[in-house]
Amino acid sequence: MIRKLVRWIRERGDKAIIYDKGCVFTCKFYRPETDVILNPFDARCANWDVWCDAKDAPDFENMAAALIPQHGDGDPFWVDSARTIFSSTAFRMSQDNKPATTARLLSLILTSELEALGNFLEGTEAAALASKDIKKTAISIKSVLATYMKSMRF
């Protein structure tokens, strides 16, 4: 019954969202030229584009709050600082003349030298948090970022 419905939808040229838990429909109906797979465990999955979901600084701040949750009774400084670095970096990337890509965002935040991140964030509220003058603190903040951002590699 559902296969007939999917065929009918295809024939009409309509769009559909199909939840395919067992991958039964994907193997039969998937067309790479028109279809989008949203499954992080499928190599054909479309990558998330941070900059399609956020345009302004408050958008990036909300995104940071969703990606880096506050938890427990611990000191909120670490999570708040990680959020500030994430949102400032992503927003600054949206404003510079270089491609805004997830790979570049991850590289800047997670693998670049502290000095490079600090230079990129110069003039933002996050600059002091990525300063080589507070190296141990900045490295601790980067470790919080790594915990929550590593899933963005996929």
From TrEMBL:
Q: Source organism's superkingdom?
A: Bacteria
What UniProt keywords are attached to this protein's entry?
Cell membrane, Membrane, Transmembrane, Transmembrane helix
Segments forming a coiled coil: none
| Broad class of where this protein is predominantly found | membrane
Q: Which InterPro entries match?
A: P-loop_NTPase, T4SS-coupling_protein, T4SS_TraD_DNA-bd
- Keyword hit for Electron transport: no
List GO terms (cellular component aspect).
plasma membrane
Q: Where in the cell is it found?
A: Cell membrane
Describe its membrane topology.
Multi-pass membrane protein
Report the residue ranges that make up the Type IV secretion system coupling protein TraD DNA-binding domain in this protein.
1-154
Keyword Membrane in the entry? The reply is yes
Q: Which Pfam families match?
A: TrwB_AAD_bind (PF10412)
Do you know which Gene3D superfamilies this protein is assigned to? Answer: Magnesium chelatase subunit I, C-Terminal domain
Q: What is this protein called?
A: IncF plasmid conjugative transfer protein TraD
Biological source species: Vibrio tasmaniensis
